[in-house]
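Sequence design from tokenized structure. All designs in this work follow the same two-part layout: the structure record, then the generated sequence. An example of the structure record is given first.
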């Protein structure tokens, strides 16, 4: 199925003709996404995939679940690093919380797969760039993490964290039958300020600014996760939650930091030999 399905047939093309540059329907959804992102850094395109496309993507992910990497490190801070002994134990840098989800890495999806072909489909990249208000997006050249599936089995969770990239593109292939809810706090920090006090308040249980988003199979989500603290709550259902994540960058040649890639995905390559320089000075 994956080798014969055209990229335009993977998506719900009748509703979202993203390869038709002059389509009014295309412009309408771009305007919708931009408005939602401007409001709180999160936007959703419902039923983005065709039924055939969704089933092809889900089948590929399901076939690779046995190769999911689960980090032996079950406690992480929100920056997904080792903390800092120069700060007190109660500082957000040194507060470690459970993270038990796993990842199916990009290198497990060959060029023939539906997911790989969609990721490299130029009309999708151009559409995403316009939705994000970017002149151009580049393939994130990290061979381990540029296109991954986040696996949340029953009882697993991905607790509060910030993303390395300014934005993420996620596509829910299979929701948990209960739980597994995406929660976020828009713009909790900025490129100039870590806002540690606000982060600590959330870790201490303050939910005044927490937003919850119910996603359904086939939904595409844009999220500005570099500055917005977010989590996926515990999967309290009886099936796996499977989320396809596609990463892009505004500059060519970008890869993840060696330490972070090793921690999250359990493998690094020669591409991770150099330390990635970020556009900001945030912890990560």
């Amino acid at each position: 199925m994956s080798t014969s399905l055209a990229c335009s047939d993977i998506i719900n093309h009748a509703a979202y003709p993203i390869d038709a540059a002059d389509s009014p329907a295309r412009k309408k959804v771009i305007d919708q996404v931009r408005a939602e992102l401007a409001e709180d850094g999160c936007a959703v395109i419902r039923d983005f995939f065709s039924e055939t496309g969704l089933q092809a993507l889900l089948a590929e992910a399901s076939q690779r679940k046995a190769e999911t990497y689960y980090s032996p490190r079950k406690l992480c801070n929100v920056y997904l690093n080792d903390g800092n002994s120069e700060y007190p134990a109660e500082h957000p840098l040194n507060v470690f919380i459970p993270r038990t989800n796993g990842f199916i890495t990009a290198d497990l999806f060959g060029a023939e797969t539906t997911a790989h072909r969609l990721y490299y489909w130029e009309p999708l990249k151009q559409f995403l760039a316009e939705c994000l208000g970017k002149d151009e997006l580049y393939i994130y050249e990290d061979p381990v993490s540029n296109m991954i599936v986040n696996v949340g089995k029953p009882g697993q969770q991905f607790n509060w964290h910030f993303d390395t990239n300014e934005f993420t593109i996620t596509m829910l292939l299979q929701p948990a039958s209960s739980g597994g809810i995406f929660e976020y706090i828009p713009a909790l920090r900025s490129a100039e300020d870590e806002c540690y006090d606000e982060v600590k308040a959330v870790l201490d249980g303050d939910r005044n600014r927490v937003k919850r988003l119910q996603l359904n199979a086939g939904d595409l989500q844009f999220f500005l996760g570099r500055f917005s603290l977010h989590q996926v709550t515990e999967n309290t259902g009886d099936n796996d939650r499977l989320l396809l994540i596609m990463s892009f960058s505004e500059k060519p040649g970008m890869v993840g930091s060696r330490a972070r890639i090793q921690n999250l995905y359990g493998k690094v390559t020669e591409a991770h030999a150099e330390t990635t320089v970020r556009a900001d000075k945030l912890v990560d």
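The first strand starts at residue 42 and ends at 45. We note this feature because it recurs in several other targets discussed in the main text.
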